[in-house]
Amino acid sequence: MAKAIYTHACALIFALFLGLSAEVEAQSATALEISGAGADAGPVYLELADLDALPQVTFETSTIWTDGTVTFSGVPLKALLGELSGRNGVVEMVALNDYKVDMPLDRLEDGAPIVATRLNGESMSVRDKGPYWVVFPYDSDTKYQTETTYAWSIWQLNRLKVVD
Asked: What residues contact residue 139 under an 8 Å CB cut-off, 6+ apart?
């Protein structure tokens, strides 16, 4: 009898653990993790509503990944990183599939790039390069039309880490 109760309790705990793991995994698809250099710079997790509460930039541009001109809106990466953006070093940008690219912090401008939260006014699904996509106003200046800039244009973004 005691063995049956123990087995049942273990099965219940395992089921609860699986349910909790699925919930955490579902949240991780939409949360943007931001961490900085330094011992006390633990990660911060921002959801879409948190990003929407920050300063926004909107621009129209064509891209090498979309058809025609599209409208992007989101948070300037420089504003998102705040005081971390003034440092020397790089920001590691990591996608859901663990693709990673490093961008020097001194390349951040006030309005570019942005962490786009919306494409043509709609939030982006993972299937459509979301939930977040680092984009530049490519049509506004030829300096944004380089292989390096295109490489920094990471989609399915879910982690940012400032590294000295």
From this structure: 60, 61, 62, 69
